[in-house]
Write a structure and sequence with these properties.
Two copies of one chain form a homodimer. Chain A folds into two domains: 3-124, Winged helix-like DNA-binding domain superfamily/Winged helix DNA-binding domain (Arc Repressor Mutant, subunit A); 127-161. Chain A has a three-stranded antiparallel β-sheet with strand order 1-3-2. By secondary structure, chain A is mainly alpha-helical. Chain A contains six helices and three strands, in the order ααβααββαα. In chain A, α2 crosses α4 and α3 (58-65) crosses α4 (69-81). In chain A, a hairpin with a 7-residue loop joins β2 and β3. Chain A binds a DNA duplex through residues 40, 42, 57-59, 67-75, 77, 90, 93-97, 157-158, 161. Chains A, B: It comes from Rheinheimera soli. Chains A, B: Residues 12-148 form the HTH marR-type domain. Chains A, B: GO terms for molecular function: DNA binding. Chains A, B: Keywords: DNA-binding.
Chain lengths: 161, 161
DNA sequence: TGTATTTAGTTGCAACTAACAACAAATTAA
DNA sequence: TTAATTTGTTGTTAGTTGCAACTAAATACA
C-alpha cells in the first residue's frame, strides 16, 4: 500500500474512533443538561426547533425531529406542563395546533444555547480561523453522510434482544 | 466587539450547531447499525471494548462504558445469548468472570468497524493531511471537554416528566 | 480460627424513551 | 352527503438504564 493510502486509512481510523468517543460522551453531557436545567435532551431539541421556527404544527415538529407524532405529542405535553410551550388552536384548521414557545421557553433555550456556545468558543479559541473552518466542515460532512444513510435506512423496528 | 472576536463567536456557534446535528443524526445511523447487524449500539460498544482489551471483568467493562454494573451485566447477557461473548469463570477468584469475545464476536466487530472506517475514509479522502489532523484534534478536544464535565456531573436522577 | 467487611456479579424494580396501532375530530374529495 | 384523508391524542408494548437488595466469594482482623 502506498504511503499516502496508508496515511488516509490511519486518519480514517482515527476519525472513526474520535467521532465514536464524541458521540458516546455526549450522552453523558446531555444527562447533565437534563439535571442542570429543566428539560430532557429531546425536550431541548423540541424547544430549539420551535424557537428557531417561531411556530410549528405538531406534524412538522415530528418530521424535523425524526420522531413519531405520538412521541412528539408527548414531548410537547411535558413542555406545555412546564410552561415553555403553548398549544394554540389553529383558526383555519381546527384539527391543528400551533405550537409556540413562551417567553419563559425562549429564555431557557437562549440560556442553554449561550452556555453551550461559550464552551465551544473556549475550545476553539486557540485555533486558526482556517482550522476552525475546516473542522466545522468535516463535522458537517460527517452529518451529511449520516443523514444520507438515515434516508436509505431499512427503517424497520429492531430485532429481539 | 472586535472583528476577530466576532469571527470566533460565529465559529463557535457554527461548531455548536454542527456538533449538535452530528450527535442527533448519529442516533439514527446507530439504529441502522442495529437492524443491519445483530447488535444494539450499547452491545456494539461492549463488543468493541472486549475485543480491544482481550478479556475484561464485568466491573472493568462497566467502568469503561460508564454504565452501571447491572446494565453491563445485562448487555453481556444478550451478547452471550447471541454467541458473541463468553463468560469464563475466573479460577483464582470464583466470584469473578472473564468476559471474552468469541471468534464470531471478533468477526462481527471487525466487520462493523471496517464498514464504518471505510465510510470515514471516503469522507476525508479529499482533504489535505493537515486538515484531517486538525479536524481529528478538534473532535478529540470536544470529547475531552465533554468528558471533563461528565466527571463534574451532579449525577442525580431526573426530575419528573 | 472465626467473624466482619468488602468485593463481584445478578436480579427485582421503577423511571424513562419511543414506536405502533387505534382512535376522535375536522377537513377535503367524490 | 358520504367516503377518504389528515391532525393530533391516547393505549399499549418493547426496550434501556440506574438504584437497591441480594448471593456468593474473598479478605481483614481480632
Amino acid at each position: 500500500m502506498p504511503q499516502q493510502d496508508l496515511q488516509l486509512q490511519q486518519d480514517a481510523t482515527a476519525l472513526y474512533e474520535a467521532v465514536n468517543q464524541l458521540v458516546r460522551f455526549y450522552q453523558f453531557r446531555d444527562r447533565d443538561l437534563i439535571c442542570c436545567h429543566d428539560v430532557s435532551v429531546t425536550q431541548c431539541y423540541a424547544l430549539e426547533f420551535l424557537a428557531e421556527h417561531g411556530s410549528l404544527r405538531l406534524q412538522q415538529l415530528a418530521e424535523l425531529m425524526l420522531l413519531d407524532k405520538s412521541t412528539s405529542s408527548r414531548v410537547v405535553d411535558s413542555l406545555v406542563k412546564k410552561g415553555y410551550v403553548t398549544r394554540i388552536a389553529d383558526i383555519n384548521d381546527r384539527r391543528a395546533v400551533a405550537l409556540t414557545v413562551t417567553d419563559k421557553g425562549v429564555a431557557l433555550y437562549q440560556q442553554i444555547r449561550a452556555e453551550l456556545i461559550a464552551q465551544e468558543q473556549q475550545l476553539i479559541a486557540h485555533l486558526s480561523p482556517e482550522t476552525r473552518q475546516a473542522s466545522i466542515e468535516v463535522i458537517r460532512a460527517l452529518t451529511a453522510q449520516v443523514k444520507q444513510r438515515a434516508t436509505n435506512s431499512c427503517g424497520t423496528r429492531l430485532c429481539s434482544d
